[in-house]
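W.,

You were right to be curious about this one. When I first looked at the sequence I had no strong expectations either way, so I just let the prediction run and decided to look at it fresh. Below is the sequence, 86 residues in total, followed by the output.
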Amino acid sequence: MLVFMHITPAQCRAARALVEMDQAALAQVASVSRNTIVDFEKGKRTPNFNNLKAIQTALEAAGVIFLPGNGEGPGVRLRSSPSSVG
């Protein structure tokens, strides 16, 4: 079960790097505009709840796990083996 947490722009950039996904690919998989990804990662704006959830869900489906801060700041890591989507 996926739990939605507010991800940060840095987590989004790091997550994309971990799964070797560019902004255009993430936008396509998440069904949001590329500008939504660009502006979010630059810290210009936070996407609405549904778009942010779609971004997080797309990255989690690709194998990313988002880690809460717990005193050291939020982070990301890869699942040991990405699950198949679809």
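Here's what jumped out at me. The chain has one domain: 9-78. And, maybe more interesting for your project: Residues 49-61 form the longest helix (13 residues).

Coffee later to discuss?

I.
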